[in-house]
UniProtKB/TrEMBL annotation:
Subcellular localization: Cytoplasm
Function: mRNA cap-binding component of the eukaryotic translation initiation factor 3 (eIF-3) complex, which is involved in protein synthesis of a specialized repertoire of mRNAs and, together with other initiation factors, stimulates binding of mRNA and methionyl-tRNAi to the 40S ribosome. The eIF-3 complex specifically targets and initiates translation of a subset of mRNAs involved in cell proliferation. In the eIF-3 complex, eif3d specifically recognizes and binds the 7-methylguanosine cap of a subset of mRNAs.
Composition bias type Low complexity, residue spans: 58-73, 322-331
GO terms for MF: mRNA cap binding; translation initiation factor activity
UniProt entry keywords in alphabetical sequence: Cytoplasm, Initiation factor, Protein biosynthesis, RNA-binding
Chain residue ranges for the region called RNA gate: 298-312
Primary location recorded for the protein, binned into one broad class: cytoplasm
Quaternary assembly: Component of the eukaryotic translation initiation factor 3 (eIF-3) complex.
The name this protein goes by in its record: Eukaryotic translation initiation factor 3 subunit D
Family of this protein: Belongs to the eIF-3 subunit D family.
Signal peptide boundaries: none
Species the sequence originates in: Sanghuangporus baumii (Phellinus baumii)
Ranges of biased composition (kind: Pro residues): 312-321
Length: 594
């Protein structure tokens, strides 16, 4: 039978806990390990407490060192601290490279507690508000309406069905990236948001066109007195920068360094807010830069709910690289797809601007110094109410440099004065009382892509602030571009019409439900638009292009990432020559295959 002997017990003559250092043998392997003090009241409930080895132990040490009140998760009563908690834990675990992929799975119950961050807390007044939705309620309070319940739904709403699939949808680029293009620069949006440049008031060089007075009766339209939207045949030009004869004449005099239009410039200044793809063609000719748009590109249409959480989607397109892939196409094309809604919104914007002016005097129209530079004598249809103001902004940082930009801006009407028509006409000629006219459209509040918008017919008169707040969220980029265009043109008023379908299933008939008046600078503050940031983006792109040699470049917004890229392209790009060359290459390729 084996014998059992008790191990020797080393008594500590100092009266402390643990063995005395004087009793350690010279070759004791644990001699240099520091000793962590502990309290007699501590209980050993686990062999290893992961919380004590990570964040909770550091929180306890911080509370003990700073005198803060212990959190509710601690085991001790308030005012009683753990013995030795202020001493650094020598046995704390620190992750190294081979443990970087390790993560602890919390197996505790995930049921929300009453009053917690994930649940509802009852206020003193008895109403229930979502903790995650307080930001939405505070943001909506600026418009003078209560959004305790609605704001909670926007801020802390549940995820819907198949939300995991929405992030996997990809968009196509606005322009086909050719293999012959060379990428020169890539800039993330978060870098653009840090740019700043203060620009003074512009100088007016030329003014062309003719504008009519705004019809003030549209300000009194309500949902009960709706007015049908009428299609009108008017001509309104959206000519690119290089084809503008006035810009060509001013560029020959070396008026500025950069030449563009307000439509193109507003997209660049609001680039960090954009979601859909776009592209700007940049031509450097000597010491001049021309920012152009492509015919049929994204600058000729209006987006719908671009910034919504779940924006409208186009039907899937078959992949040409995978002929075996089956794509189920709907039997009837939907009227609520991205492309259909964009065309509908463009139609509404044009016709609302044509309809909301008075073309038969009194009051009389305002004719600027020069006639419309794009209207020829052979045109049969009448011109739309539109005035062009060519303005120069100084983007110079110091007095030694001279960097100016010439912008062709547009105004749609003027606000007739309270006095006689002659006084109102004279003030409009001096740049006072000018207005830009735009329109928001409602398609179907229950359709996919509506972005949680309320029904306008039931909410527009009683809760206009809720409608405005939703549109500012879903169409933030579009409203920002309209506001920047109004500021660049020097307009005093921005008129925004609310146009809805007469029937949600019919996208050909529309009615005007209301019209709102905005001061561009005040509305820019509500949208949190920083013009200094926009000018900083323009100056950065200008400096980047001026470092390149003469040629043609394309600034492309990535369709699926918040990134813009600058490409160097051949001079024949986006012209008839490159299309013929591409067709010729295809014919040669087919002949070689045969």
């Amino acid at each position: 039978m084996a014998s059992f002997e008790l191990p020797p017990i080393k008594d500590n003559p100092d009266g402390g806990w643990g063995p005395s250092p004087s009793n350690f043998p010279p070759d004791f392997k644990f001699k240099d390990i520091p000793y962590a003090p502990f309290s007699k009241a501590d209980k050993l409930g686990r062999y290893a407490d992961w919380n004590d080895l990570t964040g909770d132990n550091r929180q306890s040490a911080a509370n003990a060192a700073g005198g803060a009140r212990p959190t509710g998760t601690g085991r001790r009563r308030e005012g009683q601290q753990t013995f030795g908690s202020g001493i650094a834990n020598a046995f704390a675990v620190f992750q190294v490279e081979d443990e970087a992929s390790f993560s602890l799975v919390d197996n505790r119950s995930s049921a929300p507690r009453r009053g917690g961050a994930g649940g509802f807390g009852r206020t003193r007044g008895g109403s229930r508000t979502a903790g995650a939705g307080n930001r939405g309620g505070q943001r909506g309070g600026r418009f003078g309406f209560q959004t305790g319940r609605g704001g909670g739904q926007r801020g802390g709403g549940r995820r819907g069905w198949r939300d995991w699939e929405k992030n996997t949808r990809t968009r196509e680029s606005s322009v086909t990236i050719s293999s012959s293009w060379h990428m020169l620069e890539e800039i993330e949006f978060h870098r653009l948001g840090k740019l700043r440049l203060e620009v003074d008031e512009p100088d007016d060089l030329e003014s062309c066109g003719k504008i009519f007075p705004y019809d003030k009766t549209y300000d009194r339209i309500t949902t009960k007195t709706e007015r049908p939207l009428q299609p009108l045949d008017r001509i309104k030009y959206n000519t690119t920068t290089s084809d503008d004869p006035v810009i060509q004449q001013l560029a020959s005099k070396d008026i500025a360094t950069v030449y563009t239009t307000d439509v193109i410039l507003s997209v660049l200044m609001c680039a960090p807010r954009s979601v859909y793809p776009w592209d700007i063609v940049i031509v450097r000719d000597g010491n001049k830069l021309f920012f152009d748009k492509r015919d049929g590109g994204p600058f000729d249409t209006v987006t719908v709910n671009e910034n919504a959480t779940d924006p409208p989607q186009d039907p899937p397109v078959p992949n040409p690289n995978n002929p075996n892939e089956k794509v189920v196409q709907p039997e009837t094309p939907s009227i609520n797809t991205t492309s259909s809604l964009s065309l509908e919104a463009t139609y509404i914007n044009q016709n609302f601007g044509f309809q909301a002016v008075i073309e038969t005097p009194p009051p009389p129209p305002v004719e600027f110094e020069k006639p419309n530079p794009f209207y020829g004598p052979d045109e049969a249809e009448p011109l739309a109410s539109c005035g062009y103001r060519y303005r120069v902004f100084d983007m110079s940082v110091s007095e030694e440099e001279d960097v100016k930009i010439l912008v062709r801006t547009e105004v749609d009407a003027y606000i007739p004065g309270q006095g006689s028509a002659q006084n109102g006409q004279g003030s409009a000629q001096n740049g006072q009382g000018l207005a830009t006219i735009r329109a928001l459209n409602e398609f179907d509040s229950r359709a996919q892509g509506a972005g949680g918008a309320p029904d306008w017919r039931s909410k527009l008169d009683s809760q206009r602030g809720a409608v405005v707040a939703t549109e500012m969220k879903n169409n933030n980029c579009k409203l920002s571009k309209w506001t920047v265009q109004s500021v660049l043109a020097g307009a005093e008023v921005l008129k925004i019409g609310y146009v809805s379908r007469a029937n949600p299933r019919d996208n050909t008939r529309h009615v005007i439900l209301s019209t709102a008046s905005m001061r561009p600078m005040d509305f820019a503050g509500q949208l949190n638009i920083s013009l200094a940031n926009g000018w900083g983006i323009v100056r950065t792109v200008t400096d980047l292009c001026m470092k390149m040699p003469e040629g043609k470049y394309v600034l492309v917004k990535d369709p699926n990432r918040p990134v813009i890229r600058l490409y160097s392209v051949p001079m024949t790009a986006f012209t008839g020559e490159d299309e013929e060359d591409a067709e010729g290459d295809e014919e040669v390729h087919h002949e070689s295959d045969n």
